[in-house]
Write a structure and sequence with these properties.
Blueprint: H1 3-20, H2 28-42, E1 49-50, H3 52-68, H4 81-87, E2 92-101, H5 106-115, H6 117-123, E3 130-137, E4 153-162
Parallel strand pairs: 1-3
Antiparallel strand pairs: 2-4, 3-4
Length: about 160
């Protein structure tokens, strides 16, 4: 076999192998970010970028809701999202928070937020440039007062513009 044919068959085999490799599935936070950024693009906003400090603030609140069996923007310690963001060392000029519970998938939580005027306003606020997203699953969850069944999934998305 001539040298150029050998290169061509090696290239063909490599391309075939690459086409057979399945892409890595996105996690729930990445799926939420993708859907949110799609909605923002349709509204003329730039994409949100994940920020590690905002992710940590979102995770802390999602974990607190799941482990302490409550659902609300205020933590049981009285904290607000602004306190939780500052605890992570993030300085901002504007910030907001979306929470949800009970939705089993990223598509369900984004659909839920987009149907709510306040949550939708946070998502489509073009001044926001960074975000942190977290979901915590609590298998042994108990029903929260007023709910007949456990929520199990606790979602938090924090939005901010650095200050």
């Amino acid at each position: 076999m001539c040298r150029s044919m050998h290169r061509l068959s090696w290239l063909s085999a490599t391309l075939l192998a690459l086409s057979l490799v399945s892409p890595v599935a996105a996690g729930p936070a990445e799926s939420v970010l993708s859907a949110i950024n799609s909605a923002r693009a349709k509204a003329g906003c730039g994409p949100l970028r994940l920020n590690g400090k905002l992710v940590a603030a979102a995770k802390a609140h999602a974990r607190a809701m799941a482990e302490q069996n409550f659902f609300g923007h205020a933590g049981k310690d009285g904290s607000r999202f602004s306190n939780r963001i500052k605890r992570q060392g993030y300085s901002y000029s504007t910030a907001a928070e979306n929470i949800a519970a009970g939705q089993k998938s990223a598509s369900q939580v984004v659909a839920s937020w987009m149907k709510s005027s306040g949550h939708r306003r946070n998502i489509l606020n073009c001044r926001m440039t960074e975000t942190g997203i977290a979901v915590v699953y609590q298998a042994e969850d108990r029903p929260i007062r007023g709910n007949p069944a456990p929520l199990r999934y606790y979602w938090v998305q924090v939005f901010a513009a650095p200050g």
